[in-house]
Every structure is written in structure tokens, then in C-alpha cells.
Amino acid sequence: MSGHNKWSTIKRKKGATDAKRSKLFSRIIKEITVAVKVGGADEDGNPRLRLAISNAKGASMPKDTMQRAINKGKDKDAANFLELTYEGYLAHGIAVFVECTTDNQQRTVANVRSIFNKFSGNLGTNGSLSFIFDRKGIFNIPKGELDNDDFELEMIDAGAEDIELNEDIYTVTTSMEDFGNMMKKLEELSIEPENAELQRIPKETITLNTEDALKIMKVIDLFEEDDDVQNVFHTLEITDELMERL
Length: 246
Known about the structure:
The chain is α+β, with helices and mostly antiparallel strands.
């Protein structure tokens, strides 16, 4: 299993706890709200909203919670969210890319900078890590009753670059350009992904001893626990030993 798919598996397991589930819901609610503000409340005419609602269903979010998020996006007097990114390095040269959605930029940058500084990291300028990560579409799809051979052929036809099966969940990777094609293919096949999103996948990863890697993962957790943070991507290699310890 490739490093980023291992991390995807870890995040799914961590998301099962109540605290992490609350954070996941908060993240999806923000995405629904922003999607409505940007493209309107018509799900059919707003692909971003359609994707956010699909992810909400995959996370078993109650319908009334989804509707409140949609209504908040339609409210002209509601706070506007900014989508921001922060890039930097942690110890041992581990690159970190943090995606945020916030209604208070000063608070967000202060919190992100504080975590970098506290753990001997360096917050860089935007774009400084663009050469380190590729943007890829990542789809987590429950295997269910899917026929493996037929499913893989359909996924390849829609632009899949990689297909992995782990614990009854397919992880399908596409280029950023084929993300929309894959969503359309899944809709045609009436397959609802557990989660679908664009992720920043490192071109190369750094392997550390397990103790140092665990320290880095604790910092990653601190970023993810911030209410303004939507996603955190990094270049730490997720080894089998690290998987077991996590």
C-alpha cells in the first residue's frame, strides 16, 4: 500500500472516534457552506456542492445538519469564509501543506504559525512547496458487492491511475484533471463513495525512525485539531511499523 493510502486508512480509523467525527462534520459543514456561497444551492448545477453532500452522506451526517449548512450558505448575512493555504517544514525536513477555511484570517495564521514555531518548524511562503506535491483525486469506495474485475475496468476507463483494496475499501487515485470524470462515472454506476476529494500527494517521502515519526505525527494531529484546518498533507513516509504504533 502506498504511503498516502496508508495515511488515508489511518484517517478513516481515527475518524471513528466521537471527537474526530465532530471535526469531520465541522469540516464538511464548512465545505457545504462555501460551496453554496460560491455556486448556489442547486445541487444539480453546483458540482462542488454535490461532492460535499456526497461526502456528508459517506460520513453518515444527518440530513438536517446538511440542510442547516446549506441554509447558512444561502444566508447573505452569514460570515464569509476564506480558503487559505500555509506551507512549511517541520523537523527532519518534513514538508507540510495546510489547507484552511476560516472567517478570521489573523486567528488562523497565528495558530498555524504557533504550531510551526513550537516544534522547531518554519512557516514558508505560499507556493514554496508546490514542486513537492502533486494534486490527485482520491476516492474511498466501499467494496460491498462490487465485482473486482468489472469495477477496475470501469475505473480505468474513467481515468484511474491506481486502484488499491484494503479492508474492504477501494482507494482509487486519479489525476486532478480526471477528478470530474471519475465522479461522473461513479454517478453513472450508482456507486456512492465514502469520501472523494482532491489531495496533495508528495512526489517523494522521508522515512524516519519510528520514535521521530511519532513526534511528527503528533504535530500533524495538532494542525488537524485546529477548527480552521480542513486538510494537512506531509512528506513523512507511513511505514508498516508506524502504522502499527498509530
